[in-house]
Amino acid sequence: MMNWENIFSSKRFGMENYHDDKKHARTEYQRDYDRLIFSSPFRRLQNKTQVFPLPGSIFVHNRLTHSLEVASVGRSIGDIVGLALRDKYPDALAHFEEIGAIVAAACLAHDMGNPPFGHSGEKAISTFFSEGKGKELEEQVLKEGGRWTDFTCFEGNANVIRLLMNQFYGKRKGGFAMTYSTLASIVKYPFSSTIAGGKNKFGFFASEEEDYASIADELGIMRVSDNPLKFARYPLVYLVEAADDICYQVMDIEDAHKLHLITTEKTFELLLSFFDEAKRERRIKNMNMLTDVNEQIAYLRASVIGLLVNECSDVFINNEEEILAGTFKGALIDNISITLYDAYKSCSKFAYDNIYFSKDVLDIELAGYRIIGFLLEIFTNAILKPEHAYSKLLLERMPKQYKPQSNDLYTRLQSIVDFVSGMTDVYALDLYRKITGMGLPSI
Question: Which of 225, 235, 224, 230 is nearest to 192 (CA)?
């Protein structure tokens, strides 16, 4: 069973020899948050699609605004849980007061490993290796001892851990040098791709497996199995997951309304369904004090989020022992009260049926498949035939930090996936146009 007094560690990955217990004005976890906010990969999220195409005249969420909102909600859940745990264990040495800061930092980072073009980006990378030209390389990768499922089940969550922990060329040891607790809070699926069952759900690539295992052992996270490696979930992962679940579902409904994919009446119906009769009447009364429809919807959205924050916090506290024992099943959102759960599922079903397959969303996904597949193909060919003149030009086009310098194919393919997955929608489209000759730089 995991123990709260071992769960927290401000050690920084890659900088363990410089660790000290000095008190600073900002805690190490607050520094994690600041380090992420000022980083280039985080800023690039502003040009990565969340669900809907990047905004024109109507502003909808991108990955950056989504991540900021998830961090805000995550901090609220973490603070509530931290206070409750301190009341329950007043003499414990555990840093309960830091839970909000740790969860907020992990929430900021949770989408940093996602490729361009929304949810289709992961699938486009996976299918290039499972169905496309990349499949031809499977035998060689396996022969050299590489893990092929890291490519065919490419997962943005595992890619976050790689982005934060890997020492890319020219970078310092430890990558972002994040604290152990923040890194562990990001790993939603704490097992390798070999037991992902063909799904895009696993927590770390083979290249980061050993390092994550050392962090997990330091934090006292239980090992479920050694081969293949699988751990119990780090407790704070549940809070990060809950913040993400709350935000994307509720905010997608609001965005869909702004884009006229859902009527005002249906939006009101979905959001008001979270409240019992008395609370619903109160919300309608308060909502009618506003005359702007978008403000009315924003009020209801904020009310729903507040309700779900409290519910998910209660579920965590009420199931704390099962969470520490690694026996808790499902996500926090799956265990909220039946009325709220039904309302949440109604929003999910409506979004799936009417939003995620809308023409604009599908157009972005189709373009993403084409662009990502093309870029993976030409750069993969370049690392396979680096002596060719065209390959040399392409490899010169890659930033130095991604330069494929290893002899084994697994690592060289990873460098190409690192490069492509790190692109913004705009950069990927621009590079595609230039390479294909559809767009040339100004002369």
Answer: 230
Q: How far apart are CA 232 and CA 253, in angstroms?
A: 33
Higher per-residue pLDDT: 19 or 48 = 48
Task: Classify the C-alpha dihedral 205-208-214-220 as positive or negative.
Answer: negative
Nearest to 44 by CA among 395, 434, 426, 431: 426
3-state secondary structure the chain: CCCHHHHCCCCECCCHHHCCCCCCCCCHHHHHHHHHHCCHHHHHHHHCECCCCCCCCCCCCEHHHHHHHHHHHHHHHHHHHHHHHHHHCCCCCCCHHHHHHHHHHHHHHCCCCCCCCCCHHHHHHHHHHHCCHHHHHHHHHHHCCCCCHHHHCCCHHHHHHHHHHCCCCCCCCCCCCCEHHHHHHHCCCCECHHHCCCCCCCCCCHHHHHHHHHHHHHHCCCEEEECCEEECCCCCHHHHHHHHHHHHHHHHHHHHHHCCCCCHHHHHHHHHCCCCHHHHHHHHHHHCCCCCHHHHHHHHHHHHHHHHHHHHHHHHHHCHHHHHHCCCCCCHHHHCCHHHHHHHHHHHHHHHHHCCCCHHHHHHHHHHHHHHHHHHHHHHHHHHCCCCHHHHHHHHHCCHHHCCCCCCHHHHHHHHHHHHHCCCHHHHHHHHHHHHCCCCCCC
| pLDDT at residue 57 tops 50 | no
Q: Is the peptide bond before 228 cis (omega within 30 degrees of 0)?
A: yes
pLDDT at 357 over 80: no
Higher-scoring residue by pLDDT: 244, 25: 244
Model pLDDT for residues 283-330, shown as the tens digit of each residue: 999 999 999 999 999 999 999 999 999 999 999 999 999 999 999 999
Distance, CA of 320 to chain centre: 24
Mean pLDDT of 391-397: 92
**pTM of this structure:** 0.92
Using an 8 Å Cβ cutoff, are 355 and 361 in contact? yes
pLDDT of residue 63: 87
pLDDT over 70, % of the chain: 95
pLDDT at 417 over 90: yes
Sign of CA dihedral 235, 236, 241, 246: positive
Task: Give me the pLDDT at residue 407, please.
Answer: 85
Contacts of residue 440, Cβ cutoff 8 Å, sequence gap at least 6: 434
